[in-house]
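note to self: dont lose this again. the chain is below, predicted strucutre after it. 152 aa total, dont forget to put it in the shared folder this time
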Amino acid sequence: MKATAHRQKPTTFSHKVDIRNHDLLVDEPTDQGGHDEGPSPQELLAASLASCTAITVEMYAKHKGWHIGPVEVAVEYTPAERGCPTKFALELRLPADATPEQRERLQVIAAKCPVHRTLEGEVMFEDSVTVLDADGNSAEPPRKRRSLLTRT
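---
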């Protein structure tokens, strides 16, 4: 999976993000110096968790042959600050048609969505810097740095 961000205008934080054959517009809110032309990167993280959870739950219900109706997932996200962990509050909203047993099982399945597992698990970063010439070509080999984040 790959996403590439390109600045839209020289005087803004607005970026077009290319993902496969899709474009997203990402920006910062006006109180953060942006023009609010799209969701912020932090908001996209919450959106990723909400949408992944909803899709995972609906796929599981479909696989089981359960006709439970539409699923909603609301996520509130508080970024980490010094001395405080990152916090996600996830609310799985299921129709009244879902039985208590289905609700319990779907809550377990919700925590197994790929984004949820990624956020809970060990994360490795490999950062690199590529210097480009005026034509946008690589002027020198990229410099790489690796780091591993483990949660306790």
